[in-house]
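Let's do one together. I've listed all components of the complex below, 680 residues spread over two lines.
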Amino acid sequence: MVMSAGTTPRQSIADAFAQLKQRGRIGLMPFIPAGFPDLQTTQALLPALQRGGASAIEIGIPFSDPVADGPVIQEAFNVALSHKLKLDQIFQTIATTRPAVSIPLIAMVSYSIVYRYGVDRFVKTAHQAGFDGLIVPDLPPPEAQKVCDQIRSAGLDTILLVAPTTPPQRRREIASLCSGFVYYLSVTGITGERTTLPADLAQNLDQLRTLTDRPIAVGFGISQPQHIAQLAGHADAAIVGSGIVRQISHLTDPNPTTIAAAIEQYCKFLLS
Amino acid sequence: MSSASPSSPVDFSSVPDPQGHFGPYGGTFVPETLVSALQQLESEYRKAQSDPNFAREFQSYLHDFVGRPSRLYFARRLTEKLGTAKIYLKREDLNHTGAHKINNCIGQGLLTLRMGKKRIIAETGAGQHGVATATVAALFGLKCDVYMGAEDVRRQSLNVFRMKLMGANVIEVHSGLKTLKDALNEAMRDWMGSVRDTHYIIGSVAGPHPFPQMVRDFQSCIGEETRRQCLEVENRLPDVVIACVGGGSNAAGIFYPFINDSAVKLIGVEAGGRGSALGQHAATLSLGRPGVLHGMLSYVLQDEDGQTADVHSVSAGLDYPGVGPEHSLWKDAGRVNYCSITDAEALEAFEFLARCEGILPALESAHAIAQLIKLSPSLSRDQVVVVNLSGRGDKDCQEVARLIGASK
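Okay, and this is what the predicted structure of the assembly comes out as:
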């Protein structure tokens, strides 16, 4: 464990899941787009999400063409990019804020960005900034294999996606490439809130559990406390993205502190 | 990772590899949700390739419905005017629906039926691929949704009406610059949710494997015919073949059958737009660098963070920040020369061909004509040049009138 500047020791992704297991509860993993609506807010949000009960935080790197994202996250990325947000500013903000949070930080980033920045340069910089893991949602195997090695040699965990459309043998193969956890997509579709979760979700998760001993986090379409409660016992963590982004978008006071306080409350509500 | 260049000579007829790699380019860079559909498509395509019934069916639709073979027309007045090489036009503009796009749609339409899927979706820029998809949907009784950028809906309104007449639903896309790239994003998002019962007919030699290979193969009828026709009338192969390149499907279709004929010079013409500054053009191969976009590794126009750059072209079909991966390979290997033509040059060529030959070319194809005009002083009288006239210009008349003034 690396000691952070504060009093709490910094947790690895494995630590975070071990702690959840020990406490016998499902974790909350909020997703926030970096630089939305600005980097001051990102800086204020990270410790607020931890206070709100998050077990880890997923930080989306804004991309011009996010084909897996629905309108809410697309719009947030557009807002961030319209302020001429650069990758190096995001890394800087994470590095500055890192001592204030002890839970794992995971970057979700398109391979378009990673490739252009340079894979080795990207993973090294992300690790130095204080990220613990990387999700590259548009990099499935076999293309993922070599990059996963590069990610792990930089000291970052790999997290890959399993979709409802992924056949069992391939699920096993994908899980074996994950060092952090397996990211299971609850729906066949793009990100965005849904009123109900698919009826066969719990069954699919239980089946996935028989194929891997890695922790499983579920994302896409989760936005209600009852969704998370439903997933308890079937998944180790629930990822909430569009729900949180929409909360941020709806706040009329753009003050980072106000946003952070509201989102902290929202996390507590989700875990209630 | 900087520019990827193949270290050893590439056998152009043995690409892609089973994972869809054209040398360092191509591949599959999509969310996991789409992987199984791409694998299904690939396996269905492989089966079809070795099934003589599929070939027969495909050929019969090309012959009876599309009207193939398209003519290789000796452009006498154009040849006289330019005064150097003998010029032939490969008349893809005479195909049913007015462009080469229909060739690919027939092929993928037949595959859709084989996969038992009931709905097709497509992206379109100029609307030619949208019209071809709508046509095939009507022909095969499939439900059809076409995504089109709002800016392209405006400048290609005739094609929007044609699609609607054939029963397709045209969905206007308002994100980004409201052009081809944005339409492709939206079609991908649709497919993320509909992948189990929907086939996405990508219209170019772009996107994840197996699209670049499959579309190239379906479009190769252009080059195969050109080769045969040229041998028939000239008793030799052409010296130069010129085609415009947006995503690159008409160019791949005419180039591929000549790829091992090293004496045949191949020239790909990109959209030079208003200038060489990023955002003013769509000359991806000429001015871009390797990157990842829309499921493939290929040349792209991006900023230094990997954000897709804005593009501009007078031609909606060339207005795209990426290009098919096989073109990237051909560029690096020096097999094809890629150059660019500005909006103004393309418009001039549009009018020139209309007056000189009585043919209105699509603004896309007008880029290839403009390159021919530029090149002609360096050609000699004993040379034979083929220009791929990938589409007809009827769809562009309104936009050209707006740009040059209807007073003409």
